[in-house]
């Protein structure tokens, strides 16, 4: 999947993955895609809820070797 920006939030505890995700999304234009990698298990629910409340779209979510990966398209 093509991404416009990558955010490495591995090793960060709540709420930092969300804080960094929001900051990274602010730098994107509508329609661009942010790829986020996180290891905080809470990020799975937190990012999904934040994406929905922010009017963005969670294009894909997967877990690989204890790393949560998210692809978010800016609304």
TrEMBL record:
Source taxonomy: Bacteria, Bacillati, Bacillota, Bacilli, Bacillales
InterPro entries hit by this protein: TusA-like, TusA-like_sf
Protein name, entry field: Rhodanese-like domain protein
Biological source species: Bacillus thermotolerans (Quasibacillus thermotolerans)
Taxonomic superkingdom: Bacteria
PROSITE patterns from the UniProt entry: UPF0033 (PS01148)
CDD domains named in the record: SirA_YedF_YeeD
Pfam families: TusA
Similarity section: Belongs to the sulfur carrier protein TusA family.
Domain UPF0033: start-end pairs: 7-31
């Amino acid at each position: 999947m093509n991404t416009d920006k990558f955010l490495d939030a591995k090793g960060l505890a709540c709420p930092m993955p969300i804080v960094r995700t929001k900051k990274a999304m602010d730098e994107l234009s509508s329609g661009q895609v942010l790829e986020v990698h996180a290891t905080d298990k809470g990020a799975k629910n937190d990012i999904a809820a934040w994406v929905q409340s922010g009017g963005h779209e969670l294009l894909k979510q997967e877990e690989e070797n204890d790393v949560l990966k998210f692809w978010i398209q800016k609304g």
